Prior knowledge:
The chain is α+β, with helices and mostly antiparallel strands. Helices cover 23% and strands 37% of the residues. The chain has two domains: 1-61; 67-237, Immunoglobulins (Immunoglobulin-like), CATH 2.60.40.10. The protein contains four helices and 13 strands. Keywords: Membrane, Transmembrane, Transmembrane helix.
Amino acid sequence: MDDLESDIPGLEDLGLEIPGLQDLELNTDDCVGGICYCYLFSNIIAVGFTCLMLWLSFRRMRPRHPSCSIEYFYVPALNKSLDSHLNTTINFMVRLDNPNKDKGIYYDDVYLSLSSPYTATNSSALVANYTVPQFYQGFKKKAKKWGQTLPLNSHTLLQTVLPSGLAVFRVDLKTKVRFKIVFFKTKRFRVEVSADVEVNGDGVKANNVGVKMLNPDSSSPSLGSYFPFPFSSFFHYGF
């Protein structure tokens, strides 16, 4: 029986061909290759979309530093109409705005220093210091911090007056802040801004609008450049 089966000629031995058989084998190989390419391409698209979503999420989480401005400034001793040189108090109000709509801000003590930027020796002279105690600021909130301080001496106060009759005070603000994101607190970030305030003959701020405080060193990195990796160095778990 085995000998009989071995003697039966096959299609190739008979010289017969089935039309389309070879094309069918080639098409099958092409389909397998096409499926592999489609699978690879879909994976690339999925990874790219995931990276895009993560990048957008990180941009949303990146905190923005508070905006600081001087809204009120009054020195009675420089009010020519009062002629009151004995009242040397310096009265002011600093406003701190939280621009983040979903992040609170924890402020350490806020240190303010007032100096005269223009003197005979072209060097600044310290006039007074003031400290705002630490506080918390909610989302999109504005904090108005009123202060009153005395100059180190009356001579430094008079040094702020220019020949034009205007007085100029350099106000420097320094503090460190932490951002509250959901249940987490970030590490501390340094905030250093300053502004020059002109005071007229009535002893009040010459400009009716607030004086925006800016970073004196424009080369300093913004808070966003610290975000977000690694998470362990950026976040501190806490309530």
